[in-house]
Amino acid sequence: MPPVSSSPQPVADLLADLARGLGALGVRWFLFGAQAAILHGSARLSADVDVTVELGTKSSRELVDALSRSGFELRVADADGFVKATSVIPLLHVPSRMPLDIVLAGPGLEDLFFARAIERRVGDVAVPVVSAEDLVAMKILAGRPRDVEDVASIVRAQPDLDVDAIRDTLRLLERALDRADLVPELERVIAGRSGAGPRA
Known about the structure:
Order of helices and strands: EHEHEHEHEEHEEHHHH
CATH architecture of the largest domain: 2-Layer Sandwich
Strand content: 15-25%
CATH class of the largest domain: Alpha Beta
Largest sheet: 5 strands, mixed
Distance between the termini: 44 Å
């Protein structure tokens, strides 16, 4: 049985409706973003819910139709154009009035993220959640101040965090994006956690 996590009731209700809709469609998904950070130890509140969905043979229209039957509605008028431009489907969970952003999975690293996702029980539903290591890599890539704060919180809360695995993922991202700053940023955050200060 997956660990039980305490989440605000609107989040638990949204995830229950989402799991029902995606289960009926038969697609893989995982929770990431702020709500995953909270489950992995970040001490902050957020009204945003972000998930990645692998459509497989399904279309984005089939996804929207399935979720509309589970209490969700679109937040944009031109859904097809928005999805084509961003690979994101912005929805609203009508009962809770909470926003939900669905990121459509592509090939590559997200295959690893799916394979390493863990199951956590939120309220009455088992939710696939991105691993703490992969979430840290995502947030180092995003690089916003709140993402860096989440990384520091997760590092403090997860003494068994596989930092080498995070480094490996960040090196893959550095090669793919022609960057060289992601692993050093991780090391800086880790050094700040230990009070040693940034590495030279």
